[in-house]
Amino acid sequence: MVVVTRLRFGKRNLGLLSPLEEDVLKILWRGGGGYKVREVHSILRKRRKVALTSIAVILDRLYQKKIAARKIKTARGGEYYIYFCRSDRRNFQESVIEKTVDKLIDSFGDIAVTYFNERFSKRRKQ
Does 1 reside within a domain? Predict the structure, then answer.
């Protein structure tokens, strides 16, 4: 379950994630087995200038937001994390929508519910 703490409505997204977090998440959705920080960095640096430490911070943020999960692996150089998504893209989107609608209903009550009913009935007629 995604923890929605704030929403900023913009052109690109709902403001739940930064543009860099979105790019990292898209990479994680592609890789079923997960990625090391260096692997995500090597994919992203082909498209944008970004530091390895920035990718490590972003992956940790996605983990803290409960969007990504991680497991520890051990190798000759020590321990490292493998990051992967907790859910696929569709489940993530549904979770964000559910949390957003719940927050709107909690904040505005019956007015929000009435609005949703009117809005959906208009769309069905079109």
Answer: no
Token pair in block for residue 81: 């994390």
Domain that holds residue 56: 19-125
- Please give the distance of CA 45 from its chain centroid, rounded to a whole number: 20
**Overall number of domains in the chain:** 1
Question: What 3-state DSSP class applies to 83?
Answer: strand
Q: What type of residue is 111?
A: I
| Amino acid (1-letter code) at residue 77 | G
Residue 13 included in any domain: no
Task: Kindly report each contact of residues 83-87 with a partner whose C-beta sits within 8 Å and lies 24 or more positions away, as own/partner.
Answer: 83/28, 83/34, 83/35, 83/36, 83/37, 83/40, 83/59, 84/28, 84/31, 84/32, 84/33, 84/34, 84/35, 85/25, 85/28, 85/29
User: Strands, DSSP E only, in 1-126?
Assistant: 68-75, 78-85
Give the distance from CA 49 to its chain's centroid.
21
Mean pLDDT rounded to a whole number for the chain:
85
Q: Would you place residue 44 in the very low, low, confident or very high pLDDT band (cuts 50, 70, 90)?
A: very high
